[in-house]
Specification:
By secondary structure, this protein is of the alpha/beta class. It contains 14 helices and 26 strands. Helix 1 (13-22) packs across helix 7 (213-226), helix 6 packs across helix 7 (213-226) and helix 9 crosses helix 10 (287-297). Bound molecules: malonyl-coenzyme A (MLC) and adenosine monophosphate.
Length: 508
Amino acid sequence: MAQEAVILMNSNILARFLEVAQQQGDKPFLIEDGHAIAQFADLEWDTARLGARLADLGAGPGDRIVVQVEKSADNVLLYLAAQRLGMVYVPLNTAYTAGELAYFLSDAEPTIVVCRPADEEAVRALAGDAEVVTLGEDGSGSLYDDVPDRGVYVAHREPDDLAAILYTSGTTGRSKGAMLTHGNLLSNAETLHGLWRWSSDDVLIHILPIYHVHGLFVAIHGALLAGATVLFHRCFDPAKVIAQFNSATVLMGVPTHYGRLLNSPELTPNACGQMRLFISGSAPLLAEVHDRFAEVTGQRILERYGMTETGMITSNPYDGERIAGTVGYPLPGEEVRVRDGDADAAPGEPGVLEVRGPNVFAGYWRNPEKTAEEFRDGGWFVTGDIATMAQDGRITLVGRAKDLIIAGGLNIYPTEIEEALDALPGVEESAVIGVPHPDLGEGVVAVVVAQKGAALDPEGLLAGLEGQLAKFKRPRHIAVVDSLPRNAMGKVQKAELRKVFADCLRKP
Ligand code: MLC
Ligand code: AMP
């Protein structure tokens, strides 16, 4: 009988990144303020030891690690070390309150929780049996207390094994954990690698948080797969970023970043130096911002569209025409359709955008009902975005079927805020809407009706929300009104409210 060679391909995304890292010699991976804070050559050993530390804490493949810490090189290494061990990485926005965290911990049931040193006591009270370790912005904290002088191998993972769970809110009920596999993450990273012409000569300016798809997967994965150096920023300072255009090649941001760059006197026609690619996504980029950026810099921003559940779905072309107000074409290897009921919408006609492909997530964590609701036969995922598809396949987003506000690239679900407001004393009901905001794109406005005899004021209501909701979700304007406009079916007419309050946040 012929001997068949069995080749065990490891689909762990870290295995791929380490292959690339090995070819980068002594090139820095992360640079902050001119200093190398992580090297490609060290990734193997650093992640091996940190992986051993996580193993010593009792974790193994498939176990969840919940991480709510400030952006730092150590945070990036922690993410990679978790992948090394085959763990499922669950990053959380640092703005989430203890109340929000309690839910994520009970849902994810992690083996390890990594939090900021200052939060340790509060997190321990919520973490049950999980091991709690701390990681400060400066690398302090108990995570590094007992890192052993031995490493762990890169765990073998199949393409369908989970690499991460990212929580994303829903229009109803609590946040859902989108389960992303090694196959999802690697396929999206490889597609974007080719499409956006990543190379090891690239230098990425990294200004995004690393608890979302955009900053962690699109940006960090893109650089790791290319062997590109990253200029690391913990917060966004337009002047500092513009000063790096001479030594960098790629920038990724949300529209708010581009608006702020444009408002910065340092952005001049000669400022763009070496830059070859400006990418925007996570929220609609106003055509006006796109055009002004092109006028000032001579560079057309490349707008792309994606979701937590799917990674990137469409992109304007690298070489072809980048048209303001459109999100370009479906990525290679992915299929997109625009549905009007059970049929495809005619070219140019609006419908709900659906996507399928290797990028589409494996479902919502421990929530088969929600998963079933969001998929159509044949594996099509329903995005909830309303789009048109031109004859040539170009996609334009024209609205949302989901009641969602996107402020500064962060998703905010009105229902969650309405529920919190309605639970406050004296509140009869409320409606939360998004209205134009010059810096954030959209801002949150709450329209509240008082119970009979109750006196409500906006300051009191805001104080009532304190500690319950992450700050970025809090209304920027609260109006107390006698009643909410309703249609014949009794449904609150939010479109009406959006008109009435359209100008209330125009001045930031
Ligand atoms: C901060 N604040 C916000 C806010 N960001 N409020 C509403 N919306 C936001 N996005 C509030 C804070 O709570 C704080 O309130 C005040 O504004 C100042 O905070 P800050 O930290 O100084 O803000 P700043 O640094 O200016 O942050 C703005 C920002 C940031 C745009 C740089 O929000 C950001 O990095 N956004 C990117 C989010 C992102 O990565 N999205 C990708 C999701 S993935 P107070 O009361 O304390 O003063 C995805 C898929 C895809 O969507 O396609 O990419
Ligand atoms: P999230 O659930 O945080 O991943 O956000 C995904 C949502 O952000 C999408 O469903 C879109 O509504 C929105 N989005 C992402 N990219 C764009 C874009 N380029 N233009 C408009 N909306 C976008």
